[in-house]
Amino acid sequence: MTSQQPKGSWETITAALESRVGEGKPSGDWTKYCCPSHEGDGRAHKPSLGVKYDPGQQRTVVRCFAGCENEQVLEAVGLEVKDMFDRRLDRAAGRGRRAYRPRPAQRPVSRSDKALEAAGLPPKQPGRPDLGRQTSAWKTVEAYPYIRADGTVAGEVIRKEARFEHGRDKEFTQRRWNTDLGAMENGGFEPIPYQLPQVLDTIADGGVVYIVEGEKDAKAAASAGLTATTNAGGAMVWGPEHSKWLQGAGTVVIVADHDTAGYRRADRVMSTLAGLVGRVRVVQAATGKDLHDHLMCGHDISELVPIPHLDPYTPGPGAVAAQADSTPAAETPSVSAAPSVTPEGAPVPEYMLALSGDVPQTHSDEVDSIGAHWSTFMRLFMSQLAEIARKQAEKRAQAERVARDRSEREAEELAARHAAEQKAVEARLRKLADAGLDNASRTQLAEAIVDAAAWCEDSQVAAQAMAQLSHHVHQRYGVRIDPLTGEVISETAAEATGGLASALMGAESDRAAAARLVTARKRMVDLVANTEVDEDRKAELYAAIETWCAHPSARALTELTKVMEDKGVPEKVRTEARFVAVYLGRPGDVVPMAELAEIRAVQPTAELRRLPEALVDPGEEVKPRVDDLLNRYQDRVKLGAPTESIRTQLSEAIAVMTPEDQDAARDRGRAINKTPTEEFPPLWPDHVDRDELATKIRMYATLAPQAELAAGKASDLDDATAAGLMRQAAKHRNAITKALKSGKGLHTYERDQISAVLRDIEAGKTQTPDMLFADDRSAAAVDADRATHIARDTSYANRRQAEQILTSNQAPEGTARRVRTELGRVMDAQTELGRGHGILPDYERLGLDQQLGAKLAAVGVPEPLRNKLAHHLDYAAGESASAGKSAQRIADRWAERREAVVVARSVSGAAAGAAGPDYDSPERRAGLEKDVRAAGVSEDSVAQRMAADAGRARPPSAAVRNARGGTRRTSPGMGVSRTQHRGRRGKGPEKGLGR
């Protein structure tokens, strides 16, 4: 809140919420709290209540994003709806009496209120049950991509699950596609319905669209042959921006979850569809909570149950009763002579006929009069029944004629539809054959086999296509197809249970994995062949490599390394062979937990660090980035904008280049300063930009499965959506292939890796290896990302343990919620410590542990429990510091390798081992000043650069060299660390100086 906002309704509501559920957390324009109506049980929840102040209306806006009404939320904290508005006195003229304000009308009963009451559900969503202690880490189980109407990826929803003592829980996060980075990043994306291209196709075909709650239900609907959609962000987030995409749909079916939130959502969705679609139906599962449960229990879609009061065509029980009471009686038909039959055509029951026989009856005038009237009544009544029977007979005859006509017409329509479908199938099969079966994807082949199997008895074209497809699939994938049914002739359990598409994907995945091993084996054999080892030993080494290739594993790689060492293979070759094995052969291979004690996990980045020099020349890798920096530098020079930051980046980039390339880059910089408006071609146009290529590979991995699925399910190969996706995927594929074939600067191993990744993607994989390239800069980025993941996972686990301590019965109720902010700051600082961004003394100087301890004491946590938590946080900080030191050592190793290249290629230093001017000599300083002036900087910048250089007695790389010669045995800063952390034997830990 800003100081300009009034302190009426805002302070009243926020103070009441803080006293009940704790402090709020800013989230954009909102302040988020746990909802006191359904999350006020004191346990940890994701806040779902938003509060913000509206200065225009002079009121505080309260909204529960889980669906609770404002009255329920305010009642839970002892307030009313009127407390949402600032209390302002409207004085009448000349009198100090409050002006009359009418009492607000009672909130009308909504459709969802009536439906909930009829179903016996509570008016507000009950709180979630306590699942107890978490017993497993959060694991990503599925990702749901959201595709725009033009086929581009907007983002994805990540579903995570974890096990707790009393069940499982789930959570959802969103990631959006960043076109600049070429990768997904955390954050939301524009509001679009799930499976939008399929929804638009269904609307265009006049089909039915189902709106469900959650992507899992949407996939379950797709497995049942339906087109279903939902929205990201939660049940109550559906709005007009989602409904606008459904405009023109004939029928929309809303499948509501069988709970309070599901009914509220259905009411909201139906309101946003008004005037956009033909008709709306609202149904729920016959068994279970949602559509997924309904289908898993064996129910059909036709068994979905309409919801009274919500479904427009299903009135509530009260409405049905009222309608029955007010229905007018049928009009009496005209009377005519007809046989005595009932309206259904059956004989009149005996109890409705006159008595028969010769028994004399008692006779009187009154009896004669009554008998005459009764006779007249019976004649009229029987005539009426006869007329009804005649009309019923005419209706039956008319219905029989209509049925005969309809049957003939339906038979004709069925025959015409059958012929049209056969013609369409034959056209698709011919078109697929003309395009070449070798060019067809797995999904297209699977769909074609299904079509051919369904029509082979009626169509000669389908029968011929079935024979060709069966032969092609067997030759291409090694999968046998029954030519009569189109089913897989199972040779393994996986083929028996997975179906045709799964069998083809499995076969292609196996081929891709085998191709990786073949490539790795070839490179390892080449390495051994170029050594000075005897030919007999080389033959044994080739056999050992073949053994590893036949049964690749971490244990087999360790045994292969031992064989190489025994046969006298140099350490450099052994290290490079291990790198090839895990980089090309088995990327992402994990050592089993049972073998971790005796088998060392092999990481490609670790093996690359052990090599004495980089596989990829840093000067070659940096060339595309230097071209890009020069273009940016020219743009800023044109506009007269500051160029210091660009020049600094250029200086760092060209430092690893050869002297000739450095001169070329500097000459281009001088030319830009001289004529900024001139069009300059790139200095190295054919060199591959690894960042740009990685973006294209990851984009292709995202689009290729979607394009293949759309092409396989399209009714025609020229379907607009399928064709658009296929064009985009082919565009990225062609760019990757071009870089692979004609791009410069790629190592042989990198070309092998990219070829293998393309095979993996086309086999159905959507995840690319963490390490796509073998240059030092890419490897250092992979190590940094891995260190970040380790730090975050460690911090998360330690935070969960800390929250368990604070939720024990020794702590006051709600302690974890009250200290959530302070505990979060401690864990964030430990995360940075684990990433290597700082050392333990720096973390301790922040004093975050002391701030948390003070807050715990303020909320009444007893001292023994505070000490227990402090001990846990100390241990967690040490654990994070240890991980951070490891991450920093790895980062220092990459920096040392780069610094070695910079020193070796310095213009004023030694080149290829030739001695140059001494570092402190006037000649070197004169050369440096000349180079700085040649860059076109100002005189002040030249003076600052020379002053900074004067403060260095040696190059920075000399700081890590041992003055006595040999290898340094300690890391930089170890002496200060020991002084700060020294201990005294037998007397416990010593805090050290400055503690």
Structure, described:
- The protein has 995 residues and is of the alpha+beta class.
- Helices cover 52% and strands 8% of the residues.
- The chain has 33 helices and 13 strands.
- The strands form 3 sheets. It has a 5-stranded mixed beta sheet.
- A hairpin with a 2-residue loop joins strand 1 (25-27) and strand 2 (30-33).
- Helix 11 runs parallel beside helix 22 (690-713) and helix 31 runs antiparallel to helix 32.
- The longest helix has 71 residues, at 365-435.
- The radius of gyration is 40 Å and the shape is globular.
> Which sequence of strands runs across the widest sheet?
10-9-11-12-13
What is the mean predicted local confidence, pLDDT? Answer: 79
Alpha-beta content class: alpha+beta
Task: Describe the global form.
Answer: globular
Strand fraction:
5-15%
Q: Kindly, what is the distance between the CA atoms of the first and last residues, rounded to a whole number of angstroms?
A: 39 Å
> Given the structure, what is the number of helices?
33
**Can you tell me the residue ranges where pLDDT is under 50 for at least 5 consecutive residues?**
1-6, 89-101, 320-364, 492-498, 714-718, 907-915, 959-969, 982-995
Task: Report the helical percentage.
Answer: 40-55%
Number of strands: 13
How does the major sheet shape up?
Answer: 5 strands, mixed
Radius of gyration (Å): 40 Å
